[in-house]
Amino acid sequence: MLFFHTTFLLLAGLLGTSVSAAPTNNTYLSIAHKVANSMNDHYLDRTSGVYENQWWNSANDLTALADLAIIDPSFEATAQPIIHTAFEQAPLSQGIATFENAWYDDEGWWALLWISMYDLTKDAIYLNEAESLFKDMAASWPTPCGGGIWWDRAQTYIASIANELFLSVAAHLANRTPNRDDKASYTNWAMKEVDWFDHANLINEFGDVIDGIDLNGCTRNHTDVFTYNQGVILGGLVELSKATGDASLLPKAQAIADAAIRNLTNTDGILLEKGTKDQGAAFAQFKGIFIRNLQQLHSVAPKPSYANFIRHNADSIINNAMNHEDYLIAPNWQGPFRDPNMGAQGAGLDALVSAASLSNKRDEVPVDTNSAGRVNQNPLARIRDLT
Ligand SMILES: *[C@@H]1O[C@H](CO)[C@@H](O)[C@H](O)[C@H]1NC(C)=O
Ligand SMILES: *[C@@H]1O[C@H](CO)[C@@H](O)[C@H](O)[C@H]1NC(C)=O
Ligand SMILES: *[C@@H]1O[C@H](CO)[C@@H](O)[C@H](O)[C@H]1NC(C)=O
């Protein structure tokens, strides 16, 4: 704690700001460092780069580390070797030869990590790995439902998440590949996925993204609504709008983001995972994925409500869901601090990194103080607390 206060006062002093009740960007950044270090101290296997033996969740925790290093170069020397160890050792630790496994969504999470690692290092080995994972995902197109990719190699389910990841990886690659033909091909895949997603009717009239479709009749079936399904598509549409110059993709993303902020929050504007009571690492990860992608949307199509939402949720994590002795984070962002795990830790880190990066953006919009967090005024949209 002493170190934290000293650092904070020093930064505040250097910037000539005064210490206020609401955390500043430097506060978020300083806490993000502590949360990241705590994540590595408590959950990371340093020989494999995997957290608590969790596969796709580890890709997300590592992405949060990469994102922190991208906004703060002083963290690069910590993040890079850990992520590179995962690059070399993670599959072997699971008894598989490569990052290709039986689930296409898992491949998508790892591909997005290698893209973040490429952004951080500009080393083509990571971009190549993302491209080869994308190729494997693309080989699963089409399903019998008019397009789309399968959730799994065994072809048991068509999930929104695998398709959102396919869109996001394609669009990210389109903006990074040095080859013009490859750019056209990735862009084309991303546009095909967006069309298919509409055609498959995976978004309902309230803007909720449905979890997946039933093979019998290709209709909506698994009606659960999860925060990560509301999130990954945002980053995909942002990257596709950059690749094509098609700005009409951004209001489409905003409608999906607004639906989550309206519908998947408690009355205090804190993000909730309504589709499950499970507070384990897997589901705890989802909310961070939403916030990380919301921040990407905000960086190109800013709205005061997005900046407020990100800060308000980060503040709630700090005040209600974080243990201030060892910086562990609980799954429920509204608190209390209980049952921390590696997924909740990575999700909390996503929120803190997103809050810390807001104020660094030149396109930052003024904070609308009356509505800070109070985004859920519709009584119909109020939801039962999960606990
Ligand atoms: C999905 O469809 C299957 C097969 O038609 C059915 O057995 C199952 O109950 C459905 N699940 C949901 C959540 O609707
Ligand atoms: C904090 O925000 C200020 C003002 O937007 C910006 O100049 C500064 O770079 C930010 N600092 C950090 C460490 O985020
Ligand atoms: C979203 O809001 C609408 C309208 O209030 C409601 O009918 C729907 O069930 C909500 N969805 C979720 C996932 O809560």
TrEMBL record:
Which positions make up the signal peptide? 1-21
Q: Name one GO molecular function term.
A: hydrolase activity
- InterPro entries, alphabetically? 6-hairpin_glycosidase_sf, Glyco_hydro_76, MUG_Protein
Q: Which UniProt keywords apply?
A: Hydrolase, Signal
Tell whether Hydrolase is among the UniProt keywords: yes
Q: Does the keyword Ribosomal protein apply?
A: no
Q: What is this protein called?
A: Glycoside hydrolase family 76 protein
> What is the phylogenetic placement of the source species in the record?
Eukaryota, Fungi, Dikarya, Ascomycota, Pezizomycotina
